Amino acid sequence: MNIKDKVVIITGASSGIGEATALKMAKEGAKVVLTARSKTKLKELAKKIKADNGTALVVTADVTKSKDFKKVVEKAKKEFGSVHILVNNAGLMPLSYIEKLKTDEWNTMVDVNIKGVLNGVEAVLPTLIENKGGHIINISSTAAYNYFPGGAVYCATKAAVKMFSEGLRKEISKKHGINATSIEPGAVDTSLFETITDEDIKKELKGMAKMTTLQAEDIANAIFYAVNQPARANINNIHILPSEQQ
Q1: pLDDT tens by residue, 108-138
Q2: How far is the C-alpha of 69 from the C-alpha of 66, rounded, in Å?
Q3: Using CA atoms, how far apart are residues 191 and 218, in angstroms rounded to an integer?
Q4: DSSP the chain
Q5: How far, in Å, CA of 101 to CA of 237, rounded?
Q6: What is the pTM for the complete model shown?
Q7: Which residues contact 45 (CB under 8 A, 6 or more apart)?
Q8: Tens digit of each residue's pLDDT (9 = 90 or more) over 192-245
Q9: 8 A C-beta contact, residue 59 and residue 69
Q10: Catalytic site residues?
Q11: What does the alpha-carbon distance between residue 118 and residue 129 come to, in Å, rounded to a whole number?
């Protein structure tokens, strides 16, 4: 797929991987639809994209709300005519040990990391089917494969995203020509770690400061690689870790 003039919806676009992906896609000629809850940050990003001769539309939304996601798709279609690519990037990682029973954080992770992805697919899939093609990118994690201390619920949500992506591929790729990819990064230098409230986990993670982590731009490049393939080639998953991560 040549992404020039393609319409790309990116969730969690206000920072980190979402922001880097928006900048990359816009630079390559795509029309990007930026969505997150922070209107101020999205407007700043859109201004940066437009200053570089890119095209961007800001639509604030909460991915945990199905009606919000449908509104994003409706506004994208009204502005640009259609939607071709969805990047389900919004996610949270408030790690904690199970015995602390931080159930509010568990539920929030399930709502954002899993239901947010489902809501995105629900909102965009009819349009992609109508187009007889497109691409859905879901941001999973290497946590889908490996448990780490405090990550039981987070790992479970990312495993769900990975398996859902595989289900998407098997059910819709051949039938409708819509590709699906699970992007599975290791440690990335983003604000995810700022969502952690468990002080014991924070102490455990101090050791990671010695490791050279991935940058958001690395994941944006991986996403671009996946969507820039010809329609006949589906990149099932991209598993990308820092060189120093074990």
Answers
A1: 999 999 999 999 999 999 999 999 999 999 9
A2: 5
A3: 15
A4: ---TT-EEEEETTTSHHHHHHHHHHHHTT-EEEEE-S-HHHHHHHHHHHHHTT-EEEE----TT-HHHHHHHHHHHHHHHS---EEEE---------GGG--HHHHHHHIIIIIIHHHHHHHHHHHHHHHHT-EEEEEE--GGGT---TT-HHHHHHHHHHHHHHHHHIIIIIHHH-EEEEEEEE-SBSSGGGGG---HHHHHHHGGGGGS--B-HHHHHHHHHHHHTS-TT----EEEE--TT--
A5: 32
A6: 0.94
A7: 13, 14, 19, 22, 23, 34, 56
A8: 677 787 878 877 777 556 778 899 999 999 999 999 999 899 999 999 999 988
A9: no
A10: 154
A11: 16
Identity of the residue numbered 197: T
Q: How far apart are CA 38 and CA 237, in angstroms?
A: 29
First to last CA, the chain: 34
AA letter at 88? N
Take residue 8 and report the two structure tokens written for it. 């790309």
162, 155, 159: which is closest to 138 by C-alpha? 162
Q: Render the burial of 67-77: b for 16+ CB within 10 Å, e for the rest.
A: ebbbbbbebbe
CB atoms closer than 10 angstroms to residue 111: 17
Q: Which domains does the chain have, with CATH numbers?
A: 7-239 (3.40.50.720)
CA–CA gap between residue 19 and residue 33 (Å, rounded):
11
CA–CA–CA angle 22, 28, 32 (5° rounding)? 35
